[in-house]
Amino acid sequence: MDTEKTLQDEVKEWLDKNGRKKKWFAEQIWVAPAVLSQWFNYAHRMGYQRTAKIKEIIGHGDGGEN
């Protein structure tokens, strides 16, 4: 069984741990709250730059260039 967490799972955990709302997170990555909701439900895919921003916010290093 695959127990690897998705980035969506990591963001949800980070939001809970840090007491932040999804609306706040959407504002930080410059998307509408509806788009973030679609991403959480796997109905929308974020681009590379937005994914990098998500990882930056939650402290998840991606090893990429800045």
Helix content: 55-70%
Distance separating the two termini: 35 Å
For this structure, the quaternary state is single chain
From N to C, what is the helix and strand string?
HHHH
Computed CA radius of gyration, to the nearest angstrom: 12 Å
pLDDT average, as an integer? 89
Q: What is the total number of structural domains?
A: 1
Number of strands: 0
User: How would a textbook summarize the main sheet?
Assistant: none
Percent strand equals under 5%
Task: Assign an overall shape.
Answer: globular
Structural class comes to mainly alpha
Question: In terms of per-residue confidence, which ranges show pLDDT below 50 for 5 or more consecutive residues?
Answer: 62-66
Counting DSSP H or I runs of 4 or more residues, the number of helices is: 4
Write the layout of secondary structure elements.
Elements: H1 7-18, H2 22-28, H3 33-40, H4 48-58
Short account of what is shown:
The protein is mainly α. It has one domain.
How would you explain this protein's 3D organization?
The chain has 66 residues and is mostly helical. The protein has one domain. It has 4 helices and no strands. Helix 2 crosses helix 3. The radius of gyration is 12 Å and the shape is globular. Mean pLDDT is 89; it is low at 62-66.
